[in-house]
Amino acid sequence: MTADQLKAIISAGLPCEYLELEGDGRHWFATIVSTQFEGQRPLQRQRMVYATLGNKIQTDEVHALSMKTFSPAEWARKA
């Protein structure tokens, strides 16, 4: 899977204001900013992202995905 394919999958299931991916095709690191993360705990945010992948994790199309998730307000404070 390419970075563009993975970005398209995540973006289709989760409105992202910012989405950056780095990886080697199996192991990925994502930085994701979404209004959907407002008021959500980190584990809830990760579950939301994993939900966009459907069975891609179980079928090993995406072997590993590490992520940092931010609401737009958190992202603005970080900048």
TrEMBL record:
InterPro entries: BolA, BolA-like_sf, BolA/IbaG_stress_morph_reg. Transmembrane segments: none annotated. It comes from Comamonas endophytica. SUPFAM superfamilies: BolA-like. It comes from the Bacteria. This is BolA family transcriptional regulator. Belongs to the BolA/IbaG family. Pfam families: BolA (PF01722).
